[in-house]
Design a protein that fits this description.
The complex is a heterodimer.
Chain A lengths: L2 H15 L3 H15 L20 H15 L3 E3 L9 E5 L7 H12 L7 E5 L9 H7 L3 E2 L2 H9 L3 E4 L4 H4 L15 H9 L3 E7 L1 H4 L2 E4 L1 H7 L5 E3 L18 E4 L13 H28 L4 H4 L1
Parallel strand pairs in A: 1-9, 2-5, 2-6, 3-4, 3-5
Antiparallel strand pairs in A: 6-9, 7-8
Chain B lengths: L9 H4 L2 E5 L4 H9 L5 E6 L11 E4 L6 H9 L3 E4 L10 H21 L4 E5 L23 H4 L4 H16 L4 E7 L1 E3 L6 H6 L3 E5 L5 E6 H14 L3 E5 L3 E4 H7 L3 E5 L1 H13 L22 H7 L7 H8 L2
Parallel strand pairs in B: 1-2, 1-4, 2-3, 4-5, 5-6, 6-10, 7-9, 8-12
Antiparallel strand pairs in B: 9-11
Helix pairs in contact in B: 2-8, 4-6
The chains are: A alpha/beta, B alpha/beta.
Chain lengths: 301, 318
């Protein structure tokens, strides 16, 4: 199958899906929003990093359907997003990075103007056939310092999960307790004078509650973690389907920090701690709100 | 444009330029572009039939000691070094000697015979195509090409030799230019040959961003580096980047994606039999980006590329 075939297949699949009026409306909405992305493109419709809005409607439709109908995402405070450059910093959970997907979708569907948030991919992502092209066309780049600085200086929005794999692979008993943050994101924000946008995601921890992490198997498979959830791996591939929990995404007031990107770890660490405390407070507030809707019902509705 | 035979203005300023590899497409363009500023002479392994009369062309192999005589008689005040073997048709031994030994001798004569300006046309390939590359690598990025593509190790070596020369002789204005993929009517670049195929092999599931620059813009960049007396290492970028697949279609070809394991085996066998122009190390350039940041050169010389991506692809078609 060559890329052109893949393109016609996905286009045909989309045409078929659009027979459902709600899906057709969603596709139209995405089209309209993607056209208003402020990213500068060249005469072939690509930005300097390989982002190609023309394919976004095709790639985003699945995520948008999950967003509207599976996780029924509710955003709070998205009007606080600053114009121009920003470093979006969020908690990371749920074994698979659906939280990143939902933040990305929220910023296209709900932000005014729509924004594409650029993910920083792991170094091995470019080596995966097809996935590397899809990620690049969706605006993702390899997570090097230079790429992040260049994107922020081009007034783009970059997303970072300072907990990294420590966060996404945490167990159910540690839910909604932020792991330690890396320092890199703060250095980049200081270096580029980019505001930090704290984001708290509620719901991700319950989508695939992990009971254990089989470290030796993860090492064997060269994966960052091998979680055992309520449904995975004993139910096979079906076990990978996340529970239809209700997602809430809270966008906080942008944080502006003063200082230098090359300050000592201790100085940077204090600022990182401020950001971490802010996100933890947003998470706790979100959980309180959810509890008021019922301790179990709140999770799903 | 000056008519052939008209006296060169360079005679009045007393600046004399020696271009190595003058008979190649890029050499000819540069020779014509800088005729107003310099009295131009050149050396090449091949003759330049019908060269303008105001340019003296010496047919000579860079590995020969006779190169020193040319420095003695021509007394160049500036040198543009482009005499590199970049294709794989030649014996690897010869290729290495021309590129590395030739450059070594040339640098020696530049220092001995009072050359004041030197421009070396390296290329952005020296960084190598690796998955962990930043999109816009600055001149400080390591030269990694030999890690995955040992056949072009000599070109990275030349670049390093010239960088060492740059620091060793601060009084000589040495500029090492690393232009991105160069396309045009005259230049026979490796990437140009690749894009001119009707059916262009690519790697299934990969479509890296690639930057392009027009050959006339490269000639302009060399002229500006000479004029400005730029000193340092500079990436030279054109109007921008597109995915490889777009570049192929825009140059009139059809991409033929091949699964990587098959491509590696088939191409290395065909290359050994002499039926395929590139070794399999080149495959990484069809998988990963090797794109660079050209801001340093633009700031130092005010260079602005004139040709758009569309112009460049149009000029690469037959």
């Amino acid at each position: 199958m060559c890329p052109a075939d893949l393109k016609t297949t996905t286009t045909r699949l989309m045409d078929w899906m659009k027979a459902v009026p709600a899906i057709a409306d969603l596709a139209t909405e995405i089209d309209e929003r993607v056209r208003r992305l402020p990213t500068k493109l060249n005469e072939y419709g690509f930005d300097p990093w390989g982002f190609h809005p023309a394919v976004v409607p095709r790639l985003l439709l699945g995520a948008a359907l999950l967003y509207r109908y599976w996780f029924r995402v509710q955003t709070h405070g998205i009007e606080r997003l600053p114009a121009g450059r920003m470093l979006v910093v969020a908690n990371h959970a749920g074994q698979v990075p659906i939280d990143g997907m939902m933040i990305t979708t929220a910023m296209i569907l709900e932000a005014e103007p729509p924004r594409i948030v650029r993910a920083m991919a792991d170094y091995w992502v470019p080596t995966i056939p097809f996935v590397n092209v899809m990620m690049a066309r969706m605006g993702s780049v390899v997570g090097t310092r230079e790429n992040c600085v260049d994107l922020l200086e081009a007034e783009e929005a970059v997303i970072a999960f300072p907990e990294g794999t420590r966060g996404i692979s945490k167990l159910f008993k540690e839910r909604y307790k932020l792991k330690e943050f890396g320092l890199g994101f703060m250095r980049l924000a200081l270096e580029t004078r980019a505001p930090l946008v704290p984001v708290a995601v509620i719901g991700s921890e319950e989508q695939a509650p992990a009971i254990a992490n089989v470290r030796w198997l993860a090492r064997l498979l060269r994966m960052p973690a091998f979680p055992v959830t309520l449904t995975w791996p004993h139910l096979g591939l079906v076990g990978l389907i996340p529970f239809p929990v209700k997602y809430h995404v809270y966008f906080g007031e942008p944080m502006y920090f003063d200082g230098h990107g090359n300050d000592e770890d201790e100085v940077i660490g204090r600022k990182v701690e401020q950001a971490r405390e802010r996100i933890q407070a947003m998470i706790d507030a979100g959980l309180d709100e959810r509890r008021q809707r019922g301790s179990i019902a709140g999770i799903f509705f | 444009m000056r008519e052939a035979g008209e006296p060169a203005l360079g005679a009045a300023t007393g600046e004399r330029l020696l271009i190595t590899g003058i008979a190649g497409g890029q050499g000819r363009l540069i020779a014509r572009r800088v005729g107003d500023l310099f009295e131009v002479a050149g050396v090449d392994r091949l003759p330049w039939e019908g060269h303008p009369r105001y340019i003296r062309v010496h047919v000579l192999d860079l590995r020969r000691r006779k190169l020193e005589d040319i420095f003695r008689t021509e007394r160049p005040t500036a040198v543009v070094h482009l005499a590199f073997v970049r294709h794989f048709g030649a014996d690897p031994q010869v290729r290495h000697e021309v590129n590395v030994v030739g450059t070594k001798h040339l640098l020696e004569y530049c220092a001995t015979y009072g050359v004041r300006r030197l421009v070396v046309l390296s290329s952005a390939y020296v960084y190598g195509a690796l998955p962990e590359n930043s999109h816009y690598m600055t001149e400080d990025a390591p030269l990694n090409v030999s890690r995955t593509y040992p056949e072009v190790r000599d070109l990275a070596e030349v670049d390093t030799l010239c960088s060492a020369f740059l620091w060793r002789y601060p009084e000589i204005k040495t500029a090492i230019l690393r232009p991105v993929n160069t396309l045009g009517h005259y230049v026979h670049s490796t990437v140009g040959r690749y894009l001119k195929l009707d059916y262009v092999p690519t790697i299934l599931g990969f479509d890296p961003m690639m930057q392009f620059i027009h050959e006339d813009d490269v000639a302009e960049a060399v002229a500006l580096a000479l004029e400005a007396g730029a000193r340092g290492v500079f990436n030279v970028t054109g109007p921008g980047a597109v995915p490889l697949g777009v570049a192929i279609r825009e140059s009139g070809g059809t991409p033929v994606p091949i699964p990587e394991p098959i491509a590696r085996i088939v191409f290395s066998v065909l290359f050994r039999l002499g039926l395929h122009p590139f070794p399999s190390g080149a495959i990484d350039f069809a998988k990963y980006a090797c794109t660079v940041d050209g801001r340093r050169f633009r700031a130092a010389t005010g260079f602005v590329p004139l040709f758009t991506l569309r112009d460049i692809f149009a000029s690469a078609q037959q």
